[in-house]
Write a structure and sequence with these properties.
alpha+beta, Phosphatase 2c, domain 1, nine-stranded antiparallel β-sheet
Length: about 450
C-alpha cells in the first residue's frame, strides 16, 4: 500500500485500511434484491480524506459528477490505481482526476505512490494560476501555443511530473528499477481542461456533433514505443524497440545489452533501468476549452481500450441508468469483451473514471437493456468487423523481464540490436544503472 496522500502533511485523512484492489467488499454499491441489483446510496463512504486546501479525495465510488470503478484482472494483484480530488486546490467545482496503471514486480506500489503524491504537487502550484490573473488575447484563445492559461498549466504539469519521478527514484522503500506506472491525468477548472498523459492509458471526451448526436473524441495519444518520435528518441539513446515473434504487434523497449525489461510503452514513472535509454517521464500536455456540447470525460487504463472502442465506451456511459454505475458498467463490458476476443488470455486489470460536465439529464433515448445488446452482441461484432478471436494472444503484460529475444528485424520498425553500425558501445553501463545494481534485488530474476 502506498503512503496516504495527505497523512505526511499533517492533514485530516479519514479513511482507514482501504481495499486498493477495489473489489468493494466493504463498499457494496449493489445488493441483490429479488434477482435485481439495487444501488446503495453511500456516497460519503467513498471520500477517504482531505487533500491539500480542503479537497475531497476519492479512491473509488461516485459523487454528483464522478463515477469510479476498478476491477482486478486475472494476472495477480490489481496494479491499477485511480483518484479524484474534488474542489482541487481549494476551488469549488475544480477537479483533478487520475488513472495510474502499474507494471513490473512492484508496479502496484509505484502506481499508488504516484496516485497519492502527484496531485499534491500539482495542487501546490494552483495558487499561481488564476483565470482572473491571466491576460487573454481573444484572437488567440483557441491556439494552445498562444493560450496563456495552457502555457501556465503545462509548465506546472511538466515540473510536477519531473519532481515526482525524481522523488520516486530517491525513495529506497519502493523498488522502481524494473517497475513503474503510466499516468493519465486532468485538471478541470471552469471551462478549461488540461490533460497530462504519460504512457498508454487514455482519455476521451463525449461531445455532440452538428446533428446533436453523441460522438467520441480522443484527448490523448497512446504513447507506444513504435510511434515515430518515440522510437527515434529511444534509438538515439541506444535503447532497442522490438516485438516478440509470438506478439508481432506489441512493440517493447529493451536495454541495449540485456533482454530486459520489455516495456510496452515509451513513457512512464519509474523503470529507471531504461531512463538512460530513451524512456522518459515527460508528459504530453493538452488543452481543451469546454463548450455546451461536451458531456463527459472518461479516463481508463489500457485494459479497457484493448477491447472496447472509444465509441462503445461513450455509448455505455451515456445510457447508464444512473451516473453512479457508469464506470462499473464500462468495466463489466470490458471483462466480457476480453473473454470473447481473447479467450486464452488473462483478463487485464481495468480502472475507469468518468467525469460528468453537466448536471444529470438523459443523454440518449435508448434504454440500458438496448445498449447492453448493442455493446455486448459480439456475434454482430464479428460479422461487422470480420474479427476472429485470437487464441494465441499473449496476456498483455506491460513488462517482460529477462526474456530471450530473437534478433529478427520487424519490417515496420528497424530494431536496434547490439551493434547497429553507429559505433556506439552498447555494453557500457550508465551511472544510473550502476547506482541501481544494489537495489535490483529480485527484480531482475522475476
Amino acid at each position: 500500500m502506498g503512503a496516504c496522500c495527505t497523512c505526511q502533511r499533517g492533514q485530516n485523512f479519514e479513511g482507514k485500511h482501504h481495499n486498493h484492489n477495489h473489489n468493494h467488499n466493504h463498499h457494496n454499491y449493489y445488493e441483490e434484491n429479488n434477482g435485481e441489483q439495487k444501488e446503495i446510496e453511500d456516497d460519503y463512504q467513498s471520500i477517504v480524506g482531505r487533500g491539500d486546501l480542503g479537497a475531497n479525495v476519492r479512491l473509488c465510488g461516485f459523487s454528483k459528477f464522478v463515477s469510479m470503478y476498478s476491477q482486478q484482472g486475472k494476472k495477480g494483484i490489481n496494479q491499477d490505481a485511480m483518484t479524484v480530488w474534488e474542489n482541487f486546490g481549494g476551488q469549488k467545482g475544480m477537479f483533478f482526476c487520475g488513472v495510474f496503471d502499474g507494471h513490473g514486480p512492484s508496479g502496484h506500489k509505484v502506481a499508488r505512490y504516484v496516485r497519492d503524491f502527484l496531485p499534491s504537487k500539482i495542487s501546490s502550484y494552483n495558487n499561481e494560476i488564476s483565470t482572473n490573473s491571466i491576460r487573454w488575447d481573444v484572437e488567440k484563445d483557441d491556439s494552445e501555443a498562444d493560450n496563456p492559461y495552457f502555457v501556465a498549466w503545462r509548465d506546472k504539469f511538466l515540473k510536477s511530473f519531473k519532481e515526482m519521478d525524481e522523488e520516486l527514484e530517491g525513495d529506497g522503500s519502493i523498488e522502481s528499477y524494473c517497475s513503474g506506472t503510466t499516468a493519465v491525468t486532468l485538471v478541470k477548472q471552469g471551462e478549461h481542461l488540461i490533460v497530462g498523459n504519460l504512457g498508454d492509458s487514455r482519455a476521451i471526451i463525449c461531445t455532440r456533433d452538428d446533428k446533436n448526436e453523441l460522438v467520441s473524441e480522443q484527448l490523448t495519444v497512446d504513447l507506444k514505443p513504435n510511434l515515430p518520435a518515440e522510437y527515434e528518441r529511444i534509438r538515439s539513446c541506444e535503447g532497442r524497440v522490438m516485438a516478440m515473434e509470438e506478439e508481432p504487434s506489441v512493440y517493447r523497449v529493451w536495454m541495449p545489452d540485456q533482454d530486459c525489461p520489455g516495456l510496452a510503452m515509451a513513457r512512464a514513472f519509474g523503470d529507471f533501468c531504461l531512463k538512460d535509454f530513451g524512456l522518459i517521464s515527460v508528459p504530453e500536455v493538452y488543452y481543451r476549452k469546454l463548450t455546451e456540447k461536451d458531456e463527459f470525460i472518461v479516463l481508463a487504463s489500457d485494459g479497457l481500450w484493448d477491447v472496447l472502442s472509444n465509441d462503445e465506451v461513450i455509448r455505455i456511459v451515456a445510457t447508464a441508468r444512473k451516473r453512479s454505475i457508469a464506470a462499473r458498467l464500462v468495466v463489466h463490458h470490458a471483462v466480457r469483451a476480453w473473454k470473447y476476443k481473447y479467450p486464452c488470455a488473462k483478463v487485464d486489470d481495468c480502472a475507469v473514471v468518468c467525469l460528468f460536465l453537466k448536471r444529470q439529464r438523459p443523454l440518449l433515448t435508448k434504454s440500458l437493456s438496448e445498449v447492453t445488446e448493442l455493446s455486448l452482441n459480439y456475434t454482430e461484432l464479428v460479422s461487422s468487423q470480420n474479427y476472429t478471436p485470437n487464441s494465441k494472444i499473449d496476456d498483455g503484460l506491460d513488462t517482460l523481464l529477462n526474456y530471450q529475444l530473437k534478433e529478427e528485424k520487424d519490417p515496420n520498425v528497424v530494431a536496434t540490436g547490439l551493434n547497429d553500425g553507429s559505433g556506439n558501445d552498447h555494453n557500457k553501463s550508465s551511472s544510473r544503472h550502476a547506482r541501481y545494481l544494489s537495489r535490483r534485488k529480485s527484480a531482475m530474476n522475476f
